Amino acid sequence: MKRTIPGIVALGVAALALAGCSGSGGGGSGSGGDSNEPIVVGGIAGTTGAYGAVGIAVINGTQMAVDEINESGGIAGRQIEFVWDDDGADATKSSQLFQQFVSDGAVAILGSPDTGPTTAALGEQMGIPVLGAVDDGGLTVYPNGPDEPPYQWVFSTSLNTFAWGAKLAEWSIDNCPGGLAMLHDPTAYGLGGVAGFETVFAETGHDFAYIEPITENWGSGATVSLDAEIQKIVDSGADCVEVWLTPADEAAFMQELESLGIEGLTVLGTDVTNADSTFTDLAGPQGDGLVSAMMTADAFPSDHLLEWREKYSELFDGLQPGPFAEISYDAVYILKQVIEDADGATDPESIRQGLNALTDFPGLTGSLSFSEDVHTTINKEDLTMVRWNYAEKTWDPIE
Amino acid sequence: MLQVLISGLAVGTIYGLVAMAFAVVFYVTKVINFATGQLLMASILIAAGLINGGTPDWLGIAVALASVTVLGVLTYLVAVRPVLRFDRFSFSWLVSTLGVALVIQAVFAIVYGPASVPFPRGWHGIPVRLGFATITVQEIAILATGVLAIAVWELVRRRTLLGKLGMAISTDPEMASAVGANTTAYAIGAFAVGGFLAGLAGILVGPITYGNPYLGDTYGIYGFIALMIGGIQRPTAAMGGGLVLGVLSLAANAYIGSQASDWFPFVLVLLVLLLTPNGVFASGDALRSTLRRRSAFAGAEA
Amino acid sequence: MIAALPERRWIGTLILIALFLAGTWYTATGGFGLQSIVTVTAIFVVLAVSLDLVAGMVGLYSLGHAGLFAIGAYGTTLLARNADLDVFLLLPLVVVAAGLVGAVLGALSLRVSGLYFAITTFIFTIIVYVTLSNSSWTGGLQGLSGPLFPAFPDPIEDVLGRSVVWAVAAVVFIAIGISWSIRSSPFYPVLLAVRDAEPYARAHGVHTSLVKVGMFALSAGMAGMAGWAFSFLVYQSPGQFGWVQSVMILVMVIVGGINTRFGPILGAVLVGVFPFVVKIDPFVQDVVFGLVFVLVIVFFPRGLVGLGHLVMRRMRERRRAASGERPPELAEAEIEAVEVAALDTEPPMRADSDDIALAARGISFSYVPGVPVLRDVDMVVRRGTIHGLIGPNGSGKSTLVNLIAGELRPHRGSIELNGVRVERLGAPARPAHGLRRTFQSAVMVRELSLVENTTVGLYSTVRRIAARSVIWPLLPGARRDGRRMRAAAADALSSVGLESSWHTSAVRDVPHGVEQLTQLAAAIVSEPTVLVLDEPLAGLSGAEMTHVAQILRRLREEGVTVIVIEHQTRFIFDNCDEVTVLAAGELVTSGAAPGVRENARVREVYLG
């Protein structure tokens, strides 16, 4: 008995702490609801970790939209309650947060850029709409490939690996006579890029001169040594190489090219290469000339977007927003429109149908639409090819 | 082939330095400092932060090295000494040094932000052609440092009183302190040297990898694997393990497939452990003594 | 039968079970959020408990448990998807699969020990991780969602809530139940002996290799069971089963308190609940998380349970101070004199002088080829005698003892015990032939009591202790056996002069002489026919030596054959019937004690 008392006491303390802090109400998601009750929206993103900047942008963009909407009266007269937490890029924590927000009454979950496969699968399983920065679209939203239907409950406003892959593939066909080599990572991010390329190559009959998966350290930001691959790429005769890896590895790749004295190889980037300044900061002068694609809305920013960016910087201590903040902002406003179009109904099915019916929504990132078969707002047609100009520190549109 | 060898030796020296950092600490205190990888990371970020902010290169590097040396000593005083004083054979230092690693990582993430920070390219931008392969001046510097590290260690260990006392403490700490050796001072020294070596590895690898608060784990693990391959008993053997690991990882990448470095080093370590449980370069490994024992049974002795 | 167990213990257990059921019901009928936190934490508890079985009880520090966990989780998910098997059938399948892998790892521990074994298991986790990440049929790095656990039929669900919570609760209950059962069974001292004093365990018939492999298999099966339950809770991807998780499980065990009832549970709860209770800036949260580990270990090196004990001790002191009690005095327990024949009686002549208890003939042995330690040595011990074995340093006495006991195998020669050839049998097999031995430096389990250490001596005489240990408190026959073992151990201790106030003291708290006597008690509790004592007088005072002499004589009266190896030649010649003398690996002489004492060569070898 004496030995068990300390144990019981400690467990009791833990239990009380849990009960107090997890805020469990009844099970199930928010449905219908009293017009004075807030609309709960959940946010899951990796705000710590090597790619924490992306998560921070997602949360900030969402928070900015939520605050604006609340100030101007909320959604159908109800305030938005935005609950969010850091998933640390951990699938277990992401699952737990998802379920916690659902029991808090969330009508939709925004995220996660790091654990998209988890939030998407859970949304699908529990019948809760998942919206916004769901990884980089692509295979996370279309788990069976670009030609198969997407997850029913997952709607990405995010950058889209399929779109970037297809756009870059088209450019490479016109501009890489010697062929295209590709290095990609084996996650949904890398495989999505490959799938994007293959949709175009399948139609035109092209293929990669050389393609290789490279395992990377997403968790630690450390770079991998690519010397052996560089040699194989040169041997394959390709004059372009698509480096579908982390921005840090892309930068290291270009610097390694210089170290090895290799010239004449055009390097292509990914959807995240220009999403923040990681690549450009790390690559230095060796990064000059990298070719990638960018959302047309960002390549030719409207005055509205420029004003928005200034406002974001003021709100968040001078941080530059970047596309992940933009798409998250758009997602909140899309949700607002969908709920208001349904006369304030917030049950999952009505939101889902509303999302499927979204047409030409005027967002920061362009004119956004969803349909039963298309659950990504950024597609090939919404992109512009750009090239990094080190001297001017700008991404210049090309073609 | 030559390229694989050169690049492999260069990256292997980095692993070897980290392995030496583990080994020196283990040599004196029989403790594995889980925060070693984080010390490497700290050195890169401190140097990068200072140099990018305008400090002259040499000063930034010196401050970084000094800082991680101090951090190493602090790790001992805060997380290891209390544990060992309570029970010399406890494994609790595993948790406390891990805690220190987490704290260092999180603090640096707060100070420098989670995103990668560029490190001055320096000598890594200067290639030197050797036949079909290329080596950069940075890589030459790395190799030279590795050789220097081993040379200094062996010299101190064998030729100086300091080193001989260190050997005594390593073999039998109780006896050594009974004859007057100050084991605490040696432990502090060991953690300082460990921190310094990790910091040195960081400075050397910085231009190649960029600074990021979370890369401690990656280099820590590689250093640890190198330690296992080479042999935990002797820091010199640890460096050897690093070189082996570096070359074989890159060779696996080049000849088996670019994802082979995920599993190849570990399968290698497994084989090493099963065949020579004390490490390839350690003295008196089980393989040799097993062979000897078999011959004993083959012929009966009078 | 139930009344035989202290009532208080049953009440405590019933209260815990009631609280457990109440907690499960509260969670199962609560919100998804609470459920997800509690169930995942519960899985961590199972993992920590499973690791404590091998790391805490057997001393095998494993960093492979994340890999075993993965076998359970991915195994369940993949089989549910592809083979379409019922989820309940999958449980024994993955448990057995994980158990088999665990047995292999346990077998590896026989080859590489300590730190290197930890590294080997670490590599196992990495291999599992890499396999999972690179195989498309496991979903690669993206992972897969697990099967859905079948829900209760509606009327039951309304009352009990979500079935998956009850499933997890059942898994936790089984894991903790097994762990606590082993802890309260006579197998527990045996396990600790395997951990701390392997030669001692082997000398008492414990097949330590089998124990290690078996415990590892059990631990692995438990981790596999945790994986089975986990697959219903979350989306799985390789990142949840990497070396970081393996290290985290070990951290949970150490932070909570290794080898304790509640330690692993507390450690797992700390790690599992922390991110949801400490809701601050995520970066600062990481700093605090790391600080918690450092602070807990530095201030409570025994883990969180140490904190609990501190609280209890303070409360007790305060209560005592308030009521004016004084702390119980540590009574200086006496070593009682043993009832034997007087020392100056002539040893009785044995009529059946041809009954040989132990015969070692033609023994040759060397540790290193070319350097023989024993050359063609004979030693014949007649039943019911006290036989001395002496010789100067380096004569090979200890080697001969180890050969007789089975720790070594002779290159040439034979050893017969009660007429049966045993030289090919290992040490754990010899107790079955009536042989028990003690060791020169008493190495027993320091944290356990004298009685518990002594019960190890009965391990091989009571059937199926290991197998029954997992549900020990539930078996009336087992509880009876346990009581009998403790009683027999207490009797043995008393018979060597240690009366009952010594019995519950821990070995680390008793003087050296008492430790040696305890070793002797453990050797005689099983009523052996041949007893081998390796330098039993080392470190004893004169009075203690006389005491030992009395014990030996009483044993001889009871018909036990005693072989004593000693440096103290006076003791030998005063107490032994026959003496064998070795020098430089060869037999000098052997025969009745008086004759040997007068032997010229013996004097030369010893005193020359």
Structure description:
The complex is a heterotrimer of chains A (399), B (302) and C (608). By secondary structure, chain A is α/β, with parallel strands linked by helices. Chain A has helices spanning 4-21, 52-71, 91-103, 116-126, 138-141, 161-175, 188-204, 227-236, 247-259, 278-283, 296-299, 303-315, 323-341, 348-356; strands at residues 39-45, 80-86, 106-111, 130-132, 154-156, 180-184, 210-213, 240-244, 266-268, 291-295, 361-363, 366-368, 383-389, 394-397. Chain A folds into 2 domains: 25-159 and 303-379, 3-Layer(aba) Sandwich (Rossmann fold), CATH 3.40.50; 162-296 and 383-397, 3-Layer(aba) Sandwich (Rossmann fold). A 5-stranded parallel β-sheet of chain A has the order 2-1-3-4-5, with helices on both faces. Chain A has a 4-stranded parallel β-sheet with strand order 7-6-8-9, sandwiched between helices. The radius of gyration of chain A is 22 Å and the shape is globular. Mean pLDDT of chain A is 89; it is low at 21-33. Chain B has 302 residues and is mostly helical. Chain B has helices at residues 2-29, 36-52, 57-86, 93-112, 137-159, 161-171, 173-178, 183-209, 216-230, 235-255, 260-275, 286-298; strands at residues 127-130, 133-136. Chain B has a two-stranded antiparallel ribbon with strand order 1-2. In chain B, helix 1 packs antiparallel against helix 10 (235-255), helix 2 (36-52) packs across helix 8 and helix 5 crosses helix 6 (161-171). Chain C has 608 residues and is of the alpha/beta class. Chain C contains 23 helices and 12 strands. Mean pLDDT of chain C is 89; it is low at 339-345. Classes of the chains: A alpha/beta (399), B mainly alpha (302), C alpha/beta (608).
